[in-house]
Design a protein that fits this description.
This protein is of the alpha+beta class. It has a four-stranded mixed sheet with strand order 8-7-6-9, with helices on one face. The relative contact order is 0.14. The protein has two domains: 74 residues, OB fold (Dihydrolipoamide Acetyltransferase, E2P), CATH 2.40.50.140; 78 residues, Alpha-Beta Plaits. It has four helices and nine strands; from the N terminus they run E-E-E-H-E-E-H-E-H-E-E-H-E. 25% of the residues lie in helices and 45% in strands.
Length: 159
C-alpha cells in the first residue's frame, strides 16, 4: 500500500482511493463504503495486502473497484489449507453438501480447489466412516461457512 485518500460522497458515504504497487508498477483501486469499512485497517501505508478487484474498461481507461482486501499473511495461510474434512452426523446431509459443492464449482471456476472428504458418525455404524469424494472442489472460507451452516454437520476442518 503506497497510500489511501478517503472522501465523502454527496450522500455522505465514505469511499477511498488506495494507491498500490506491485512488480508491474503502480495503480489505484477505488473502495466504496462497505468494503472500506471492513478493510480500512489493512490499508495503512507500507502494508502488504492481497486485493480482489472488479476491473472494467471505460474510455480506454482501466478502472479497478476493490471488492476485498486481506493482509498477505492471511491470504497465504488460506492458500496453504487446500482440503476440507466435513464431519457429518446424518446421511441426509449429503444432498445439501453436494448442492453447495456443485454450485461452488460452477460459480467459482477459478477459486483455489482442494480435496473434500466426508466423515460420517452414525449410531448404526461400528465407528466413523471417512469418504473421499475423489474430486477437487473450491475451498474458500465462504464455502466452509456455508457447509457449516447446513443441518447434520458437526464440524468442518481444513487439511
Amino acid at each position: 500500500v503506497a497510500g489511501r485518500q478517503e472522501r465523502k460522497s454527496a450522500r455522505g458515504n465514505r469511499f477511498a482511493f488506495a494507491q498500490l504497487s506491485d512488480t508491474t508498477g503502480a495503480y489505484e483501486v477505488t473502495l466504496f463504503s462497505e468494503t472500506l469499512e471492513k478493510t480500512r485497517d489493512f490499508l495503512e501505508t507500507g502494508a502488504k495486502v492481497v486485493v480482489t478487484v472488479e476491473a472494467t474498461l471505460e474510455s480506454d481507461q482501466l478502472k479497478l473497484l476493490g471488492r476485498s482486501v486481506a493482509p498477505i499473511d492471511v491470504a497465504v495461510a488460506d492458500a496453504g489449507s487446500a482440503g476440507m474434512l466435513i464431519h457429518v452426523d446424518s446421511i441426509s446431509a449429503f444432498a445439501s453438501i453436494a448442492t453447495v459443492l456443485n454450485r461452488a464449482a460452477e460459480q467459482l471456476p477459478k477459486a483455489g480447489r482442494g480435496p473434500v472428504r466426508l466423515c460420517l458418525s452414525d449410531a448404526g455404524l461400528p465407528g466413523e466412516v471417512e469418504i473421499d469424494l475423489n474430486q477437487d472442489f473450491p475451498v474458500t472460507p465462504e464455502i466452509k461457512g456455508a457447509i457449516k451452516s447446513l443441518g447434520g454437520i458437526l464440524a468442518v476442518e481444513e487439511f
